[in-house]
Each structure stands twice: as structure tokens, then as C-alpha cells.
């Protein structure tokens, strides 16, 4: 479960998904967000964060600032393909988004389609070759079930001190699964697909899916979070992906697990 969190990771993950409370509780009157502070219209967060929500308002065109994505940065050609390790796209800087238009909504829709087709729970834009701060996820992992959430320019401003291990897999690392320690909950700020600002606390499976995808937006890969012992258990599989990249592209692998320098601090949400 991770970059493009995989749904079929293991039976334990399926049980976790089935037992997890919904990201946003619901009632007969509609979606009710978990406790949060909200900026912008008083529309329920669950609705505003879902894919495909149209809006008559869009943010102003990007400022002339290298921190923000240009139209060229947001250009993509369907069908999207999942980028595999060790492609350098996965380590590239991902720019912030400040244009919320039809193109962005279409990109999010295409990402959901790829996610479901590859049995994922989440997917980040760099995993499909678009280096911008955008992620989509649905902890149910099944189209038509659960809630489809789109987060743009997310920031973690608080994380729980309690850490939990859980077996993760990643669409960018086919066939590789291993335990990763992460905070059990996080408080985040982000924008939805319309550009509206939101704040929310995530816990349980949604928190883990989010953290995995958020790492992707920082250029952090899930094996960066593994302990040395856990990494050793998947070292050969990572080296096989590096070899496959070289055979497929004719290029030298841009990185190798042999140069791994230690576990990334699980409390650090920076590169």
C-alpha cells in the first residue's frame, strides 16, 4: 500500500480496509466531515474533495514563479502509465498547483482510472509522469465503493507520536511488499479539486494511504522509510527493478539500493 497503494497487498490489509471507519462519516442528510476547520464555501469536505466536482470558479493563472506548475508541467497524454522505480521522475521536484480547471479535473479522473485498473488505493501525480502536487485516493480501493478523495498542494502540520508498522506495497515497485513504520494519524492542510482550502485529521488506513502518497510528492519512496533489516529483505528485488530499467531504457540506473544510506526519519516530511 503506498505510492499507488496496492489493494491486494496482503490479507491483513484487506481486513484493515474492511474494518476501517470511513474517511468521512455519513448520515441520511449527506456527508459529514470529520472534525476540521474549513476555509471557503461551507460545502462538506467529502463532497468537495471528490473527483469530478465541477466549479464555475478557477484560480488565477500561475504566477511567474518556478514553484508553481505551468501549463506545460500539467500536460499529459492518456492513457496514463505508472512510472516504475528507479525512473528519475519519482525523485524529481513536484511543483505546486494554482490553476484549478478542467485539465486538472481530467488528470485526477485519469489517475483514478489507472489506480483502479492496477488494484491501487492511492496514486500520486509523479507516479504517472506529472511532477505536480496532486494525489488521489480511495481507501476502499474499488470503483463505486468508498470515497474518492483528491488533494492538491497538501501539507502535514502535525503527526502523532505513536508509530505503527504495516506491510506496504507500491504500484511503482511491482511485487515488493515490506513493513513501514508511520505515525498513526496526521493533521493536514490542502486544497480540493476546486482550489478551496481544507484542514482535516486522518487516522487509520486513510492516514497511511495519505502518508504514502504524500511521500511521493516529496520525492520520498517507501523503501526510504524501511529499517535496514527490512530493506535487506527486499534488496535483491529492488536491484532487479534497477536492472530491468537499464535493460529497457539502455541507460544506467539513476540510483541504486547499494548506495542506501539509512532509514528516513518517519517524523520528517521533507526531502
UniProtKB/TrEMBL annotation:
One Gene Ontology biological process: translation
Cofactor(s) the protein requires to work: Fe(2+)
UniProt keyword list: Chloroplast, Hydrolase, Iron, Metal-binding, Plastid, Protein biosynthesis, Transit peptide
Subcellular location(s) per record: Plastid, Chloroplast
E.C. code: 3.5.1.88
Catalysis: reaction(s): N-terminal N-formyl-L-methionyl-[peptide] + H2O = N-terminal L-methionyl-[peptide] + formate
MF terms (GO), sorted A to Z: metal ion binding; peptide deformylase activity
A cellular component annotation (GO) from this entry: chloroplast
Keyword match Protein biosynthesis: yes
Family: Belongs to the polypeptide deformylase family.
Protein function: Removes the formyl group from the N-terminal Met of newly synthesized proteins.
Protein name stated in the entry: Peptide deformylase
Amino acid at each position: 500500500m503506498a505510492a499507488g497503494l496496492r489493494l491486494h497487498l496482503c490479507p491483513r490489509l484487506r481486513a484493515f480496509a474492511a474494518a476501517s471507519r470511513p474517511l468521512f462519516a455519513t448520515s441520511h442528510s449527506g456527508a459529514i466531515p470529520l472534525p476540521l476547520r474549513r476555509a471557503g464555501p461551507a460545502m462538506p469536505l467529502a463532497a468537495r474533495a471528490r473527483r469530478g466536482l465541477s466549479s464555475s470558479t478557477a484560480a488565477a493563472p500561475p504566477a511567474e514563479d518556478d514553484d508553481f506548475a505551468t501549463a506545460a508541467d500539467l500536460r499529459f497524454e492518456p492513457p496514463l502509465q505508472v512510472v516504475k522505480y528507479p525512473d528519475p521522475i519519482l525523485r524529481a521536484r513536484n511543483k505546486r498547483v494554482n490553476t484549478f480547471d478542467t485539465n486538472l479535473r481530467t488528470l485526477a479522473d485519469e489517475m483514478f482510472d489507472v489506480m483502479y485498473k492496477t488494484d491501487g488505493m492511492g496514486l500520486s501525480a509523479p507516479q504517472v509522469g506529472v511532477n505536480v502536487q496532486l494525489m488521489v485516493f480511495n481507501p476502499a480501493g474499488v470503483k463505486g465503493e468508498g470515497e474518492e478523495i483528491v488533494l492538491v498542494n497538501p501539507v502535514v502540520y502535525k503527526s502523532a507520536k505513536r508509530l505503527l508498522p504495516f506491510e506496504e506495497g507500491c504500484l511503482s515497485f511491482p511485487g515488493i511488499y515490506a513493513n513501514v513504520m508511520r505515525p498513526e494519524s496526521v493533521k493536514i492542510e490542502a486544497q480540493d479539486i476546486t482550489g478551496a482550502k481544507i484542514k482535516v485529521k486522518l487516522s487509520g488506513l486513510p492516514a497511511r494511504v495519505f502518508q504514502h502518497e504524500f511521500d511521493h510528492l516529496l520525492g520520498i519512496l517507501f523503501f526510504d522509510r524501511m529499517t535496514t533489516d527490512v530493506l535487506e529483505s527486499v534488496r535483491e528485488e529492488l536491484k532487479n527493478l534497477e536492472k530491468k530499467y537499464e535493460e529497457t531504457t539502455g541507460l544506467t540506473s539513476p540510483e541504486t539500493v547499494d548506495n542506501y544510506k539509512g532509514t528516513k526519519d518517519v517524523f520528517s516530511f521533507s526531502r
